[in-house]
């Protein structure tokens, strides 16, 4: 299976999907919507649950300068590296094979303009992910955004201390949670 970059300088270029039926992809409609909402020019991005890396490659296609992609799967890591080579962007990415719960200590005090996370749907990841992002809020630049793709059916209940939920966008059976750092942080 191939995925197509929908926008930017790599528009219509095809990349490989991870050869694993458990991997779910951010839809082309959702990627286009995010690229229309935010300006990725000059951005530094962190992608958690990266899969094939299609979201990062879409952002790089739209002006992002660097992306750190994190996934626990060796199949995903190999797919990301192959896709980066195909697009000629190996120098613009860093790939980390890690569980998302352990990656924050490996980021060497980096800060990101955008953090994108697309955890498996309906498996209870959202609460824990939000808690970890809130605890490690300093990796998000002051005017940066966290974008979490989740199933509309998945509920969450987290008391955020350092982050604020700005908006929830509805896309059929999917929701995007858009968060930022609180202004005093």
Automatic annotation (TrEMBL):
Q: Which Gene3D superfamilies match?
A: Vaccinia Virus protein VP39
Q: What is its EC number?
A: 2.1.1.171
Q: Which InterPro entries match?
A: DNA_methylase_N6_adenine_CS, RNA_MeTrfase_RsmD, SAM-dependent_MTases_sf
Matching PROSITE patterns: N6_MTASE
CDD domains, alphabetized: AdoMet_MTases
Q: What class of enzyme is it?
A: transferase
Q: Which GO terms describe its molecular function?
A: 16S rRNA (guanine(966)-N(2))-methyltransferase activity; nucleic acid binding
Keywords of the record: Methyltransferase, Transferase
- Origin, by domain of life? Bacteria
Q: Which Pfam families does this chain map to? A: Cons_hypoth95
Methyltransferase is among the record's keywords: yes
Q: Check the record and name the PANTHER family matching this protein.
A: METHYLTRANSFERASE
Q: What is this protein called?
A: 16S rRNA (Guanine(966)-N(2))-methyltransferase
Q: Write the gene name.
A: rsmD
């Amino acid at each position: 299976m191939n995925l197509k970059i929908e926008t930017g300088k790599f528009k219509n270029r095809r990349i490989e999907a991870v050869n694993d039926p458990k991997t779910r992809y951010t839809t082309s409609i959702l990627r286009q919507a995010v690229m229309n909402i935010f300006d990725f020019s000059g951005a530094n991005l962190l992608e958690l649950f990266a899969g094939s890396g299609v979201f990062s490659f879409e952002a790089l296609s739209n002006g992002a300068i660097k992306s750190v992609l994190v996934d626990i799967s060796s199949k995903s890591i190999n797919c990301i590296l192959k896709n980066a080579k195909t697009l000629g962007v190996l120098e613009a990415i860093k790939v980390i094979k890690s569980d998302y719960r352990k990656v924050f200590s490996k980021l060497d005090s980096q800060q990101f303009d955008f953090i994108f996370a697309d955890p498996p749907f309906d498996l209870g990841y959202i609460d824990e992910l939000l808690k970890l992002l809130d605890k490690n809020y300093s990796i998000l630049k002051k005017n940066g955004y966290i974008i979490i793709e989740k199933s509309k059916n998945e509920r969450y209940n987290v008391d955020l201390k350092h982050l604020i939920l700005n908006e929830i966008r509805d896309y059929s059976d999917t929701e995007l949670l858009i968060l930022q750092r609180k202004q005093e942080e």
